[in-house]
Amino acid sequence: MENLPEAQVWMGILVRLGFKHSVPFILAYLALAGASMLLAVAPSNVTPLYPAAGLAWGVAILWGRRTYPSIFVAATLANTLPLLFSQPSFTTVLAGIAIGVGEVISVLISCKLLSVVRGRERVFKQVQDVIAFSVIALFWVVSPTIGVSALAFAGLVESEAFSRVWLTWWLGDSIGILLLTPLVLVLNTTHWRNLLNNDGYKLVVGIMGAATASLAVYVSELPLLYLLTGICFMAAYRLSLFGVIAVNLVIATITSSAYMWQVGPGAHFVAPIQLGLIQLFLAFNMVISLVFWCTQNRNRELSVKWSRAETQARLDPLTKIYNRRGFEERAIELMRQKRTLSLLILDIDHFKYVNDHYGHDIGDEVLRQFSKKIAGMIRDSDVFARIGGEEFAVILADQNLELAGLMAERIRATIESTELPVSSDNTIKYTVSIGVSSVSEGVDIHRWLKTTDKLLYQAKAQGRNQVAAGCVMPIDVAPTPSRKVN
């Protein structure tokens, strides 16, 4: 570093301290702080809603201690510049620096607490995450304590107003964190296109509905704030996490504007009480909607897992087709529709020899190849399942015995001509025997399977690689003789 120009040396130091990507953050922090100053009460830099604190904690959660220098610079500038306009002095600059230090200390302590309690990777995945985040956010006390003390030292806060200013600062930072930190984390983990695609028109409708309802409540000045809480619940039920945060931000923006213009249901209260009610209202809405969203999201995840487990319970893990349970359930559904149905039961000939001679791995490959061949020959409306070791079943919907027999013969011929390579100079050829039956009313699934299985045994008794067909009649009628389909 000795041979580098002095400017490059300082640039290298700044980069190592975390300033490489700090300019966008500092500008965003200053913009949010400037916007929140529109709501400021005396003294001029104390605001009831400070989303810049949420931005600071969000980037600190994501990128750690590298962001602390940027947070210090941004917080110092955001607080020093307004103070200099009202009281330009060296003491004022020291007060601004102290506020920046307090912001960094608060961020550091909060990040440590959050990583210890829940970890940075799981924020807003479970209700416990939201509770931990909310509690830590509401205990954001270092920054207001140092900040208000610095203002008092600079003569900008009188002693009798200390507690009121401290309370306003504390709640303003906490609400800003509750509103903006989740947004920072969501935007970091989700591409903006996915944010729109996942919600689509629901997101637009939710934001417009929240804005319209908020304006109606504050313009009418009726005591209907609870309606806005209901909208937050609806957003948590219908929208993604981004949608929930967006709806809360819209409500918070309009609520803060109403406070600034002294309109709405709380306008008749004295200023400190009105301010406290608004802050508590915004904090309650955000926390309760996040908790409700996590609960709903957990329920949705459990529902998906349950549905997936139910589906897997009906599938054969080797061939990925129905197992016996899934087959019988689908068969009963089709039989209740009183449609013309035909059943094929297929058994791979001499499959035990394949397993014994070539090994179970090759036997599994035979089963998979066989399943793919059959699945490619039947329709989506048909039901295909593995109901035993090498035994399979197919229900052909809206197919009589004659058509089913033709399909069975086509399957038999296809399998007979199929080869499975087991090495560079060796292949396996195998055949299948098939029993075919059609069903009439009054026959249950188990009798249908049993009768068709007997037809399968007839096909094997006739020399294997055969098709045997017959009808399954009601219980009080004897079955017709089977016949061979050539």
Structure description:
With 486 residues, the protein is an alpha+beta fold. It is built from 18 helices and eight strands. It has helices spanning 6-19, 22-36, 51-63, 68-86, 90-117, 127-138, 142-153, 162-189, 192-199, 201-220, 225-238, 241-260, 271-313, 324-336, 351-358, 360-375, 401-416, 445-461, and strands at residues 341-348, 383-386, 391-397, 419-423, 426-429, 432-439, 467-472, 483-484. The chain has a six-stranded mixed beta sheet, sandwiched between helices. α4 packs antiparallel against α5. The chain is elongated, with a radius of gyration of 36 Å. The model is unreliable at 6-11, 13-19 and 473-486 (pLDDT under 50).
Summary of the model, kept short:
Its cofactor is Mg(2+). The chain is an alpha+beta fold and 486 residues long. The chain contains 18 helices and 8 strands.
